[in-house]
Amino acid sequence: PTPPPPPPSPSPPSPPSPYRGASPLGVIGYQGGESSLVVLNGQLLLVDSPAWCYPYHMRFDHPEMGATCASYIRVVDMATGITVSNITQSCQHSFGNAFVDNGTLYVYATRCARYEVPHPWCPRPPTLGLCPCWHGGDVADCAIDVFWTTDLEHWETKPVFFPNTNLPNVDVAATPGRPDMTYIMVWERGGLLVTNASTPTEGWIKPNGSLHGPDMGCPSVKYVEAEETFYVVGGGKGVHAAKSRDLINWTAASAPVATCGGANSALIARPVQYPGIFSWDMPTRVGVNWSQFVANNTNHWDTDASDLDLVEWTRPDTHTPVTMLVYICGNQKTDGFGAVSVFEGTMVDYFFNLFQ
Length: 356
Fold this sequence. Notes:
Number of strands: 24
Strand content: 35-45%
Distance between the termini: 41 Å
Helix content: under 10%
């Protein structure tokens, strides 16, 4: 008998896009710094760190604006773009990063990271000028506080690291199924990390041995239990990713996770539009002609990307999983803005695509 023909050769894989399969949705705002996307009780929320004299150079070049340059943490409903909670205890905090665990939203933020200035709900006297935590890159006087809530109305807080711990920017993730830790924290200092076998608010220790994270700026950490794998995304001028199973050997993704230019530029520089899901008005930016800003590109917003975070969420219309991403376009010194993208699939699928 004639043997059956051989199976057809598989089609070559499509070249990776600058967004690795994620589609840009638009601009979320100009004041936010480090941001996180979380899902609390099914609601998709943005947790960010607004500073009202953003971009950063305004703080240095125009100290007289300090009285209007509050820095704190807020929570925004992604469905509407409306702030649903200002964390009043977070006055004078920045570098906020958040995650949800067992129905509780936890936010970690650096104390006194920028100007210390008054706010309507922050009765502290102004001390115009830069606090030691931020000025000149000196982080010796930084401290990390954690804020947590189950209802976005009642917040509790406590320090998790006291001053002189050299922690300017951290991110935390749960590590379900692991016998050696319950949570992991990475920070923006040479790949340093700490672990926790207790609760998100206490019990943090630096592990013995050679465990370390990748040396990335503005890191975000995730743990995929099914793969027993840690993923970290971070960096600037294009967000990058790395993965590891042992916290010693790290593999880098072959292409940037997110950039801000190329063929998708027009999709980023617009109000957030996710058809059938949510639609925002274009955020305002005092003193900036947006059309001119985009046209002349003097601030290189389309070449820089940083501070990415992501979360898996179930679309309310189709009940299918999607992975939402938030990141910053721009160099954060002359100008920039927050942007969001979506990957139509699970976070596991998204990470799988990054390393193809």
